[in-house]
Amino acid sequence: MKGIRILFLVGANLSIIHLCLLRELSSLQYCTELVLVFLLTAFFLGQTVGFRLYRNWTRPRAFAGYLWLTVPLPVLVLLRVGVGHLKGAGLSNLFYPVILVYLGSITALYAVLLPEVVDAEPRDEGSFARAYSSELLGSLFGLGVAGLMIGYNGNPLLFVYPVGVLLIAYFHGVSRKQLAVLLVVASLSGISFSLLNKTSMETYYQYAHGLENRPQLLFARNSAYQRVDVLQVGGDKRLFLNGVEFFSEGQLDDFNYYLSELPARLIRPRSVLIIGSGSMSAVGRMESFARRVTTVELDPLVVQASFQFFSDEHPSSRQEHRIVYDDARHFLRHTKEEFDLIVLDIPTAFTLQTGTLFTSDFFQLAKSHLTAQGVLSIYLTQAIRPNGRYEVAGPILSAADETFQELIALTAFDTGNSFVYASDSLPFQRSDVDRLLGRAGRFNQYLFEEDAVRREADRWEPASLTNLSHVWAHQ
Question: The domain that contains 55 carries what CATH number?
Answer without folding.
Answer: 1.20.1250
